[in-house]
Amino acid sequence: MKFFLLFSLIGFCWAQYDPHTAYGRSAIVHLFEWRWVDIAKECERYLAPNGFGGVQVSPPNENLVVNSPSRPWWERYQPISYKICSRSGNEDEFRDMVNRCNNVGVRIYVDAVINHMCGEGAQAGTSSTCGSYFNPHNRDFPAVPYSGWDFNDGKCKSGSGGIENYNDAYQVRDCRLSGLLDLALEKDYVRTTVANYMNHLIDMGVAGFRLDASKHMWPGDIKAVLDKLHNLNTQWFSQGSRPFIYQEVIDLGGEAVTSSEYFGNGRVTEFKYGAKLGTVIRKWNGEKMAYLKNWGEGWGFMPSDRALVFVDNHDNQRGHGAGGASILTFWDARLYKMAVGFMLAHPYGFTRVMSSYHWPRYFQNGQDINDWVGPPNDNGVTKEVTINPDTTCGNGWVCEHRWRQIRNMVAFRNVVNGQPFSNWWDNGSNQVAFGRGNRGFIVFNNDDWELSTTLQTGLPAGTYCDVISGDKIDGNCTGIKVYVGSDGNAHFSISNSAEDPFIAIHAESKI
Ligand code: QV4
Ligand code: CA
User: Fold this and answer.
1) Does residue 477 contact residue 465 with C-beta atoms inside 8 Å?
2) What range(s) does the Alpha-amylase C-terminal domain occupy (predicted)?
3) How many CB atoms lie within 10 A of CB 225?
4) Could you report the per-residue pLDDT of 247-288, keeping only the tens digit for each?
């Protein structure tokens, strides 16, 4: 029995649900559109020292160069070949990044675009990031190679060849998403070609994949690809480790395709999470934070051990994808920090932090007409992520992951890892608090009046440093101090006009 238990534990650790983060690290960050040279430096100078577990990187393979509009971010979701060659850098730079990040215990997860190639309407030629020739009209991608046989043109049964009806699972899987040429993943040749690309990355040392547009691939086809994948590189991972898989399926309910169909392959993005949390923190539709008491499965979300969660992603922070207006982003910084703080304190799901760049957001008739704008660049060449003396980023990079409140909550999550959700308190409105066993405690005031109350923290007696208003530095606290008595109680007061109306303390912020 003991042996069996041990065995199944190990089995879990090796499986596709496990992110293979270094011991004690529990969150990853999406460094959207960053160059590989900058990510390598960020792993060494910031992510490793601050306990980040890994990085989701933008698609590394060769893609269409779109000049009208000028170099939009979304061109990277239109593959031309599987050469490692993009605006983020070349294969040598990618390999160097994977080495250096792994060497400091920070994992790399690749955004794999394997459902399709470029749009049907793209011009034939060599307007691609590595200069490879392609002809979408003949379905010719010689740099892979793919040809007409490798696409779903014959299989799709919609009138236009595009997805017209999301209530028809066949259309969703076999027809073109936004005109993107749909790969025939039922063919062994296509499965093998895609698996070769992914294996190339695995052999370099990546720890797993975000599977883009998974809703548009049959779960069985995905499984057939995954079954061809190598184990992770034993230079950094234990023998027999399987790549971490999280599938992008937007399931807000009411469609033919559901998240649960994909659980057998790996984790799945839980898009209800950010949409609901945004609604609650904005206090829309009569929602209040008190209702978060049973956050997680209690809200109709997928099982925690299948969920990849986030407050916003690269799509819905700019009105693409799903979630709608309730999604909180860096543009609403005060509420956003509370949402990310809540996510990182709460045990549900495996968490991903977003890290963005600025763009000239401009609404016309409720639509951001600049939702296409690509990363900070000089004539199309992505700019370096520079670091200011105050540790924030320059050159137009937002770097939410470097905001003190967010960085310190990543550390909080690591400190409370494995501890139960405990000592919930609420005022029936938008003042709430909860702990994580005897390791951490967090209090929010999202009401329009002051919070002033004594709460059971579950923590050992002592003086703790609030890691939201400050930092524990050399045994001193630059922020608010919280005094926990021998009975575990502490008094909290949080003004509703505080810069950040929440307080978080944990075992390692004790002074
Ligand atoms: C246009 C027309 C189409 C027409 C086509 C003809 O709109 O009606 O059929 O031309 O060629 C871009 C343009 C889009 C254009 C298309 C093809 O925006 O207007 O079609 O290219 O040229 C990103 C962007 C898309 C972008 C795409 C490819 O969001 O706007 O399309 O990249 O460049 C659903 C899916 C979900 C998806 C989400 C956005 O279920 O899987 O929509 N999310 C992922 C990624 C996302 C990416 C894709 C999938 C596609 O997170 O970033 O789309 O890889 O919910
Ligand atoms: Ca498809």
Assistant:
1) yes
2) 422-510
3) 22
4) 999 999 999 999 999 999 999 999 999 999 999 999 999 999
Residue type for position 447: D
Tokens of 181: 């040429």
Residue with CA at minimum distance from ligand 1 atom 13: 178
Q: Ligand 1 center to residue 329 CA distance, Å? A: 21
Ligand 1 lined by 256 (C-beta under 6 Å): no
**Could you identify the residue written with the tokens 């596709």?**
16
Rounded to 5 degrees, φ, ψ at 488 are: 85, -5
Distance CA 296, CA 298 (A): 5
Residue 281: both structure tokens together: 């923190």
Task: Extract the tokens encoding 399.
Answer: 């770097």
- The parts of the chain modelled with pLDDT lower than 70 are 1-14
Q: Which residues contact 10 (CB under 8 A, 6 or more apart)?
A: none
Is residue 390 annotated as part of the catalytic site, yes or no?
A: no
User: Does the bond joining 136 to the residue before it have cis omega, within 30 degrees of 0?
Assistant: no
Q: Which of 120, 174, 248, 466 is catalytic?
A: 248
User: Which ligand is nearest the CA of 115, by number?
Assistant: 2
Residue with CA at minimum distance from ligand 1 atom 3: 178
Residues 6+ apart with CB under 8 A from 458: 422, 423, 435, 437, 438, 441, 488
Q: Which ligand is nearest to the CA of 316?
A: 1
Query: Which helix (H) or strand (E) element contains residue 196?
Result: helix 188-204
Contact 494 CB / ligand 1 (< 6 Å): no
Q: Which of these is catalytic: 75, 150, 182, 212?
A: 212
Cα separation of 400 and 406, whole Å? 7
Could you tell me the pTM of the whole model?
0.97
Q: Is the CB of 117 under 6 A from ligand 1?
A: no
Q: What residue has token string 């004790």?
A: 510
CA distances in angstroms from 479 to 176, 409, 414, 473, listed in the order given: 53, 15, 21, 10
> How many C-beta neighbours within 10 Å does residue 210 have?
24
Interior/surface letters 376-410, b for 16+ CB within 10 angstroms, e for the rest: bbeeeebbbbebeeeeebebebbbbbbbbbbbbbb
Q: Where are the alpha helices (DSSP H) in 66-187?
A: 91-103, 169-174
Residue 13's pLDDT is what?
53
The per-residue pLDDT for 8 is 47
Angle at 97 (CA atoms; ends 52, 29), nearest 5 degrees:
30
